[in-house]
Protein backbone atom coordinates (compact mmCIF):
# COMPACT_ATOMS: atom_id res chain seq x y z
CA UNK A 1 0.00 0.00 0.00
CA UNK A 2 1.45 3.40 -1.06
CA UNK A 3 0.34 6.50 0.86
CA UNK A 4 -0.02 9.34 -1.66
CA UNK A 5 -1.00 12.89 -0.66
CA UNK A 6 -1.99 15.51 -3.25
CA UNK A 7 -1.55 19.19 -2.40
CA UNK A 8 -3.71 21.18 -4.82
CA UNK A 9 -3.37 24.93 -5.39
CA UNK A 10 -6.89 25.90 -6.48
CA UNK A 11 -5.80 29.23 -8.02
CA UNK A 12 -2.78 27.94 -10.01
CA UNK A 13 -2.94 28.46 -13.77
CA UNK A 14 -6.48 29.18 -14.88
CA UNK A 15 -7.80 28.02 -11.49
CA UNK A 16 -9.94 25.28 -12.99
CA UNK A 17 -8.41 22.11 -11.59
CA UNK A 18 -10.51 18.89 -11.72
CA UNK A 19 -8.44 17.21 -9.03
CA UNK A 20 -10.64 15.76 -6.28
CA UNK A 21 -10.45 12.60 -4.20
CA UNK A 22 -13.39 11.23 -6.17
CA UNK A 23 -11.66 11.90 -9.53
CA UNK A 24 -8.37 10.33 -8.41
CA UNK A 25 -10.04 7.25 -6.92
CA UNK A 26 -10.89 6.13 -10.46
CA UNK A 27 -7.12 5.91 -11.23
CA UNK A 28 -5.61 4.73 -7.93
CA UNK A 29 -6.94 1.30 -6.91
CA UNK A 30 -7.97 1.19 -3.22
CA UNK A 31 -6.01 -2.05 -2.67
CA UNK A 32 -2.70 -0.45 -3.69
CA UNK A 33 -2.98 3.24 -2.88
CA UNK A 34 -4.23 5.30 0.03
CA UNK A 35 -5.09 8.73 -1.41
CA UNK A 36 -5.54 12.03 0.42
CA UNK A 37 -6.25 15.36 -1.32
CA UNK A 38 -5.63 18.70 0.42
CA UNK A 39 -6.25 22.21 -0.95
CA UNK A 40 -4.12 25.24 -0.12
CA UNK A 41 -6.12 28.28 1.00
CA UNK A 42 -3.44 30.97 0.97
CA UNK A 43 0.20 31.67 0.08
CA UNK A 44 2.47 29.45 2.21
CA UNK A 45 -0.36 27.12 3.27
CA UNK A 46 0.94 24.22 1.12
CA UNK A 47 4.05 24.03 3.32
CA UNK A 48 1.91 23.52 6.44
CA UNK A 49 -0.19 20.90 4.67
CA UNK A 50 2.95 19.01 3.62
CA UNK A 51 4.34 19.09 7.15
CA UNK A 52 1.09 17.46 8.33
CA UNK A 53 1.32 14.91 5.50
CA UNK A 54 4.85 13.99 6.58
CA UNK A 55 3.51 13.34 10.12
CA UNK A 56 0.76 11.26 8.53
CA UNK A 57 3.48 9.07 6.94
CA UNK A 58 2.88 10.06 3.30
CA UNK A 59 5.39 8.33 0.99
CA UNK A 60 4.64 10.40 -2.10
CA UNK A 61 3.54 14.04 -1.98
CA UNK A 62 2.21 15.44 -5.22
CA UNK A 63 2.37 19.18 -5.88
CA UNK A 64 -0.62 20.09 -8.07
CA UNK A 65 0.14 23.58 -9.31
CA UNK A 66 2.98 25.55 -10.86
CA UNK A 67 6.53 26.37 -9.76
CA UNK A 68 5.30 28.32 -6.70
CA UNK A 69 3.35 25.33 -5.37
CA UNK A 70 6.24 22.97 -6.16
CA UNK A 71 8.49 25.28 -4.15
CA UNK A 72 6.21 25.21 -1.09
CA UNK A 73 5.82 21.42 -1.26
CA UNK A 74 9.36 20.40 -2.24
CA UNK A 75 11.01 22.69 0.33
CA UNK A 76 9.79 20.18 2.97
CA UNK A 77 11.16 17.17 1.06
CA UNK A 78 14.80 18.15 0.48
CA UNK A 79 17.18 15.40 1.68
CA UNK A 80 14.26 13.12 2.53
CA UNK A 81 13.17 9.72 1.17
CA UNK A 82 9.66 11.03 0.44
CA UNK A 83 9.07 11.30 -3.30
CA UNK A 84 7.84 14.49 -4.97
CA UNK A 85 5.17 14.02 -7.63
CA UNK A 86 4.07 16.85 -9.92
CA UNK A 87 0.78 17.52 -11.67
CA UNK A 88 1.51 20.67 -13.67
CA UNK A 89 -1.63 22.79 -13.50
CA UNK A 90 0.26 26.10 -13.11
CA UNK A 91 0.79 28.82 -15.69
CA UNK A 92 4.48 28.60 -16.64
CA UNK A 93 5.30 25.14 -15.21
CA UNK A 94 9.06 25.58 -15.76
CA UNK A 95 10.27 22.60 -13.71
CA UNK A 96 7.59 20.22 -15.04
CA UNK A 97 8.45 21.20 -18.63
CA UNK A 98 12.14 20.54 -18.01
CA UNK A 99 11.22 17.13 -16.52
CA UNK A 100 8.87 16.46 -19.46
CA UNK A 101 5.92 15.85 -17.16
CA UNK A 102 2.84 16.23 -19.38
CA UNK A 103 0.18 18.88 -18.78
CA UNK A 104 -2.42 16.27 -19.69
CA UNK A 105 -3.91 15.23 -16.34
CA UNK A 106 -4.39 11.54 -17.16
CA UNK A 107 -0.85 11.20 -18.52
CA UNK A 108 0.63 12.96 -15.47
CA UNK A 109 -1.33 10.58 -13.21
CA UNK A 110 0.02 7.57 -15.14
CA UNK A 111 3.58 8.71 -14.36
CA UNK A 112 2.72 8.80 -10.67
CA UNK A 113 1.60 5.19 -10.87
CA UNK A 114 4.70 3.97 -12.76
CA UNK A 115 6.97 5.80 -10.28
CA UNK A 116 10.21 6.26 -12.19
CA UNK A 117 12.33 8.37 -9.82
CA UNK A 118 15.29 10.68 -10.47
CA UNK A 119 17.24 12.82 -8.01
CA UNK A 120 17.56 16.51 -8.89
CA UNK A 121 19.69 19.37 -7.58
CA UNK A 122 18.25 21.99 -5.29
CA UNK A 123 19.37 25.62 -5.16
CA UNK A 124 19.65 27.38 -1.81
CA UNK A 125 19.90 31.12 -1.20
CA UNK A 126 20.47 31.93 2.46
CA UNK A 127 17.61 29.95 4.12
CA UNK A 128 15.38 29.51 1.06
CA UNK A 129 15.34 26.60 -1.37
CA UNK A 130 14.58 26.96 -5.07
CA UNK A 131 14.04 24.28 -7.66
CA UNK A 132 13.62 26.26 -10.89
CA UNK A 133 15.14 29.72 -10.81
CA UNK A 134 16.02 32.88 -8.97
CA UNK A 135 16.06 36.33 -10.53
CA UNK A 136 17.19 39.82 -9.55
CA UNK A 137 16.67 43.13 -11.35
CA UNK A 138 14.30 43.07 -14.32
CA UNK A 139 13.05 39.51 -13.55
CA UNK A 140 12.00 40.53 -10.03
CA UNK A 141 10.43 43.76 -11.28
CA UNK A 142 8.33 41.80 -13.77
CA UNK A 143 7.08 39.42 -11.04
CA UNK A 144 6.25 42.48 -8.88
CA UNK A 145 4.03 43.79 -11.71
CA UNK A 146 2.63 40.29 -12.39
CA UNK A 147 1.61 39.77 -8.75
CA UNK A 148 -0.40 42.99 -8.74
CA UNK A 149 -2.76 41.47 -11.35
CA UNK A 150 -5.44 38.90 -10.55
CA UNK A 151 -4.89 36.52 -13.49
CA UNK A 152 -1.98 34.10 -13.84
CA UNK A 153 -1.47 33.54 -17.52
CA UNK A 154 0.87 34.26 -20.43
CA UNK A 155 -0.84 37.48 -21.57
CA UNK A 156 -0.71 38.93 -18.04
CA UNK A 157 2.95 37.96 -17.83
CA UNK A 158 3.71 39.69 -21.16
CA UNK A 159 1.86 42.82 -19.94
CA UNK A 160 3.91 42.79 -16.73
CA UNK A 161 7.08 42.49 -18.87
CA UNK A 162 6.08 45.52 -20.98
CA UNK A 163 5.34 47.54 -17.85
CA UNK A 164 8.78 46.62 -16.50
CA UNK A 165 10.44 47.75 -19.74
CA UNK A 166 8.80 51.18 -19.16
CA UNK A 167 9.63 51.52 -15.47
CA UNK A 168 12.70 49.42 -14.59
CA UNK A 169 15.75 51.33 -13.34
CA UNK A 170 19.21 49.70 -13.16
CA UNK A 171 20.01 51.59 -9.98
CA UNK A 172 21.11 48.92 -7.51
CA UNK A 173 24.76 47.98 -7.10
CA UNK A 174 25.62 44.27 -6.93
CA UNK A 175 28.99 42.77 -6.07
CA UNK A 176 28.92 39.17 -7.21
CA UNK A 177 31.66 36.71 -6.35
CA UNK A 178 31.48 33.89 -8.79
CA UNK A 179 34.04 31.15 -9.48
CA UNK A 180 36.74 33.07 -7.60
CA UNK A 181 36.19 36.33 -9.52
CA UNK A 182 34.38 39.43 -8.36
CA UNK A 183 32.06 41.38 -10.66
CA UNK A 184 30.68 44.80 -9.69
CA UNK A 185 27.68 45.87 -11.71
CA UNK A 186 24.35 47.71 -11.76
CA UNK A 187 22.66 44.85 -13.50
CA UNK A 188 19.66 44.81 -15.74
CA UNK A 189 19.37 41.12 -14.83
CA UNK A 190 20.96 38.44 -12.71
CA UNK A 191 19.20 35.15 -13.45
CA UNK A 192 20.20 31.91 -11.74
CA UNK A 193 18.62 28.70 -12.96
CA UNK A 194 18.51 25.00 -12.18
CA UNK A 195 16.21 24.33 -15.16
CA UNK A 196 16.55 24.73 -18.92
CA UNK A 197 13.11 26.38 -19.15
CA UNK A 198 11.98 29.50 -17.31
CA UNK A 199 8.28 28.88 -17.88
CA UNK A 200 5.95 28.59 -20.90
CA UNK A 201 8.58 27.90 -23.56
CA UNK A 202 10.92 30.75 -22.67
CA UNK A 203 14.50 30.16 -21.66
CA UNK A 204 17.78 31.99 -21.34
CA UNK A 205 19.51 29.05 -19.63
CA UNK A 206 19.00 26.39 -22.30
CA UNK A 207 22.16 24.49 -21.27
CA UNK A 208 21.11 24.00 -17.63
CA UNK A 209 21.00 20.37 -16.42
CA UNK A 210 18.88 19.46 -13.39
CA UNK A 211 21.34 17.05 -11.78
CA UNK A 212 24.82 18.27 -12.75
CA UNK A 213 25.57 19.89 -9.38
CA UNK A 214 25.66 23.36 -10.96
CA UNK A 215 23.40 26.36 -11.40
CA UNK A 216 23.52 28.32 -14.67
CA UNK A 217 23.85 32.08 -14.24
CA UNK A 218 23.11 34.81 -16.77
CA UNK A 219 24.27 38.30 -15.86
CA UNK A 220 23.37 41.30 -18.02
CA UNK A 221 24.87 44.63 -17.04
CA UNK A 222 23.03 47.98 -17.18
CA UNK A 223 20.93 48.52 -20.33
CA UNK A 224 19.13 51.58 -21.68
CA UNK A 225 15.50 51.30 -22.88
CA UNK A 226 16.49 50.88 -26.53
CA UNK A 227 18.87 48.04 -25.64
CA UNK A 228 16.20 46.36 -23.49
CA UNK A 229 13.93 46.19 -26.56
CA UNK A 230 16.82 44.91 -28.66
CA UNK A 231 17.50 42.24 -26.01
CA UNK A 232 13.82 41.16 -26.06
CA UNK A 233 14.16 40.68 -29.83
CA UNK A 234 17.39 38.68 -29.39
CA UNK A 235 15.77 36.45 -26.71
CA UNK A 236 13.01 35.57 -29.18
CA UNK A 237 15.72 34.60 -31.70
CA UNK A 238 17.57 32.67 -28.95
CA UNK A 239 20.74 34.73 -29.36
CA UNK A 240 20.69 37.05 -26.35
CA UNK A 241 24.41 36.27 -25.85
CA UNK A 242 25.19 38.67 -28.73
CA UNK A 243 24.96 41.80 -26.57
CA UNK A 244 28.24 42.82 -24.95
CA UNK A 245 26.66 43.29 -21.48
CA UNK A 246 25.87 39.54 -21.34
CA UNK A 247 27.85 36.85 -19.51
CA UNK A 248 27.09 33.17 -18.76
CA UNK A 249 28.52 31.17 -15.85
CA UNK A 250 28.05 27.78 -14.21
CA UNK A 251 28.45 27.81 -10.45
CA UNK A 252 28.11 25.56 -7.43
CA UNK A 253 28.25 28.51 -5.05
CA UNK A 254 28.37 32.29 -5.19
CA UNK A 255 28.08 35.33 -2.96
CA UNK A 256 25.88 38.23 -3.94
CA UNK A 257 26.25 41.52 -2.08
CA UNK A 258 23.51 44.01 -2.80
CA UNK A 259 23.91 47.67 -1.90
CA UNK A 260 20.88 49.88 -1.89
CA UNK A 261 20.81 51.91 1.32
CA UNK A 262 17.24 53.18 1.35
CA UNK A 263 15.04 50.55 -0.23
CA UNK A 264 14.33 46.90 0.30
CA UNK A 265 15.62 44.49 -2.33
CA UNK A 266 13.18 42.36 -4.28
CA UNK A 267 13.97 39.10 -6.07
CA UNK A 268 11.93 36.33 -7.61
CA UNK A 269 12.27 32.77 -6.39
CA UNK A 270 10.49 30.10 -8.45
CA UNK A 271 8.24 32.83 -9.89
CA UNK A 272 7.21 34.26 -6.50
CA UNK A 273 8.28 37.64 -5.14
CA UNK A 274 10.63 37.78 -2.14
CA UNK A 275 11.70 40.87 -0.23
CA UNK A 276 14.84 41.42 1.78
CA UNK A 277 16.90 44.32 3.12
CA UNK A 278 20.24 45.07 1.45
CA UNK A 279 22.26 42.03 2.38
CA UNK A 280 24.86 39.47 1.52
CA UNK A 281 23.24 36.41 -0.03
CA UNK A 282 25.01 33.05 -0.17
CA UNK A 283 24.10 30.80 -3.04
CA UNK A 284 24.77 27.06 -3.04
CA UNK A 285 23.66 23.85 -4.74
CA UNK A 286 22.57 20.73 -2.88
CA UNK A 287 23.41 18.09 -5.46
CA UNK A 288 20.71 15.49 -6.22
CA UNK A 289 18.94 16.16 -2.92
CA UNK A 290 15.31 15.89 -4.06
CA UNK A 291 13.71 12.70 -5.39
CA UNK A 292 11.15 13.38 -8.12
CA UNK A 293 8.79 11.06 -10.00
CA UNK A 294 9.18 11.74 -13.74
N1 LIG B 1 -6.00 29.35 -2.17
C1 LIG B 1 -5.04 30.20 -2.52
N2 LIG B 1 -5.34 31.51 -2.72
C2 LIG B 1 -4.39 32.38 -3.12
N3 LIG B 1 -3.10 32.05 -3.38
C3 LIG B 1 -2.76 30.75 -3.21
C4 LIG B 1 -3.70 29.76 -2.78
N4 LIG B 1 -3.06 28.56 -2.70
C5 LIG B 1 -1.77 28.80 -3.08
N5 LIG B 1 -1.58 30.09 -3.39
C6 LIG B 1 -0.39 30.76 -3.92
O1 LIG B 1 -0.54 30.84 -5.34
C7 LIG B 1 0.73 31.21 -5.90
C8 LIG B 1 0.87 30.74 -7.34
O2 LIG B 1 0.99 29.35 -7.40
P1 LIG B 1 1.76 28.59 -8.57
O3 LIG B 1 3.09 29.19 -8.81
O4 LIG B 1 1.71 27.17 -8.24
O5 LIG B 1 0.84 28.84 -9.85
P2 LIG B 1 1.15 29.64 -11.19
O6 LIG B 1 1.76 30.97 -10.84
O7 LIG B 1 -0.10 29.64 -11.98
O8 LIG B 1 2.22 28.71 -11.94
P3 LIG B 1 3.76 29.02 -12.41
O9 LIG B 1 4.51 29.50 -11.20
O10 LIG B 1 4.27 27.72 -12.90
O11 LIG B 1 3.66 30.07 -13.49
C9 LIG B 1 1.75 30.66 -4.91
O12 LIG B 1 2.44 31.77 -4.34
C10 LIG B 1 0.91 30.01 -3.82
O13 LIG B 1 1.47 30.18 -2.53
TrEMBL record:
GO MF annotation terms: ATP binding; kinase activity; metal ion binding
Gene Ontology cellular component annotations, sorted alphabetically: plasma membrane
Residue span(s) of domain DAGKc: 1-129
Database matches in SUPFAM superfamilies: NAD kinase/diacylglycerol kinase-like
Metal-binding among keywords: yes
Key words of the record: ATP-binding, Kinase, Lipid biosynthesis, Lipid metabolism, Magnesium, Metal-binding, Nucleotide-binding, Phospholipid biosynthesis, Phospholipid metabolism, Transferase
Record InterPro entries: ATP-NAD_kinase_N, Diacylglycerol/lipid_kinase, Diacylglycerol_kinase_cat_dom, Lipid_Phosphate_FormReg, NAD/diacylglycerol_kinase_sf, YegS/DAGK_C
One of the GO BP terms on file: phospholipid biosynthetic process
Cofactor: Mg(2+)
Keyword Lipid metabolism applies: yes
NCBIfam families per record: YegS/Rv2252/BmrU family lipid kinase
Protein name per Swiss-Prot or TrEMBL: YegS/Rv2252/BmrU family lipid kinase
